[in-house]
Amino acid sequence: MRRRIILVLILMSLCVTGITVLQLYWNYQNYKSTLRKFNTDINNALDIALNKEIDLRQEKIISKFKTWMADTTLVQITCENNNRDSNTVFHVNDKFPYSPKEKGFALGFAAFKEKLKQITPSAKSYFIEHFANSVLKRDLKKGFVYFYTQKLGDSLSKIYNAARLDTSVLIPLYKQELASKEIYAPFKLFLGLPSKTQMFVTLTMSSALKRPYEKQYVYAAFQNPNLYFFKAMKWLITTSCLLIFITLFCFGYTLRTLFSQQKLAQLKDEFINNMTHELNTPLSSIKITAESLGKFDHDAQTTKEYLNIILYQTEKLSSMANHILQLNRPTGLYKNTEDIELNALIKRAISDLLPKSKDKNARIYFQASKNPIIISGESQALVNVLINLIDNALKYNKADPKLDIRIHNDTKYSEISIADNGIGIPPEYRDKIFEKFFRVPTGNIHDVKGYGLGLFYVKEVILKHKGTIKVSSNQPRGTVFKIKIPLA
Ligand code: ADP
């Protein structure tokens, strides 16, 4: 049995350790993948936000360009249509070129179907819109500044070079992108290349309009991402901590049950040993007496004496069986409640034990109260309680027993104390003595007979009467039991 329990314990410990290690490993892997995802997300988000910011900067340049194109003091837009089958061609020239030789540029749109020899306001705005939104936009996206005309080119490159990254625009855009990925960790944007930092940084990206030809770097740094991860993984961590806790709790609980079952089995074994021993003495006496009655012829007087012995031993057996049955089932003893006078009840218990106390040369002092004390309860059960306690006080005593029984009253309760000068109960067993079958260990020899059921019975009956029972040591030696029962 012991070996099997040890084996189960080893297996259970392995299991619990395995589950805990697996949970920790799983959480660590999760942490690593969250870290990887976080890294990818913050880089993607910065890339998208930066592209949006660059688009905005380019949009500003495009709209500026449109105003220049529309300004007739700067640019002259004309058109011609030489051939019936060809498209209208638009000519764009500086109004005041640096030199008369300078030529602007000419362009036609396949989608523009009108055949015009002279520019009209609607054709002009069509041309400006389409030129800026397709040609200029495409060129800017490539990172080029074309000198469509010399003066337009000059102005364009001036604002193009001045259009640097605006972090006040990028920050909200980045925040928005991060939020779409459910990242709310605080960050800072830095221009240039990252120096050695404790912070968690993104890739360095170019924010220049002329990228990839020009490099103006930007990167984002996040402080203490672990806190962020902890927040992101809080439910996972809580759940797995809870699982570990439940597993450990179940493990502990099972261990406790296992040990208490083993203890109970041991106590039951002891109980059966005691019982068998107790049964054997009257049974052998009956057997010997019956055998001698059968073998020899006896006169009527001797036969009667022998039969009396058999009868006496049988009654002893039957009262023993009843006693154990009763002790084992204290519940159901609170059926017939009545008003009970406590002083009388104590006197009854003492007189029931008179033969035993005389045998043991015991002195029992009882200080009855002046006034009667009435409680409500089951008198037989309460007498049994007192008999058990007084009997124990006589039993567990090596010298001449001296018992002191007192009764006190307050407004609500009555307290009976039974003090003895016996062997005492070590403090570590004082809670256990009320458990079923428990007997204070005395090595292998139990010179005092008992089944470990008496105090279990006592406690159950007292609880049924809504009372309490306490045990403490008596001075200079012995034990004191104190019972409190509510007054009627
Ligand atoms: P039993 O007396 O049949 O063994 P009980 O339930 O009445 O069972 O008592 C449980 C144990 O408590 C006893 O075995 C004994 O070790 C201890 N005990 C009870 N009363 C006393 C007492 N007055 N003095 C010393 N030990 C006691």
UniProtKB/TrEMBL annotation:
UniProt-listed InterPro entries: BphY/WalK/GraS-like (IPR050351), HATPase_C_sf (IPR036890), HATPase_dom (IPR003594), His_kinase_dom (IPR005467), HisK_dim/P_dom (IPR003661), HisK_dim/P_sf (IPR036097), Sig_transdc_His_kin-like_C (IPR004358)
Enzyme class of the recorded protein, top EC level: transferase
Domain spans labelled Histidine kinase: 274-488
Catalytic activity: ATP + protein L-histidine = ADP + protein N-phospho-L-histidine
Signal peptide annotation: none
Gene Ontology MF terms: phosphoprotein phosphatase activity; phosphorelay sensor kinase activity
Keywords associated with the record: Kinase, Membrane, Phosphoprotein, Transferase, Transmembrane, Transmembrane helix, Two-component regulatory system
EC number per UniProt: 2.7.13.3
Short name of any one Pfam family annotated for the protein: HATPase_c
Source organism, top-level taxon: Bacteria
Protein name: histidine kinase
Biological classification of the source: Bacteria, Pseudomonadati, Bacteroidota, Sphingobacteriia, Sphingobacteriales
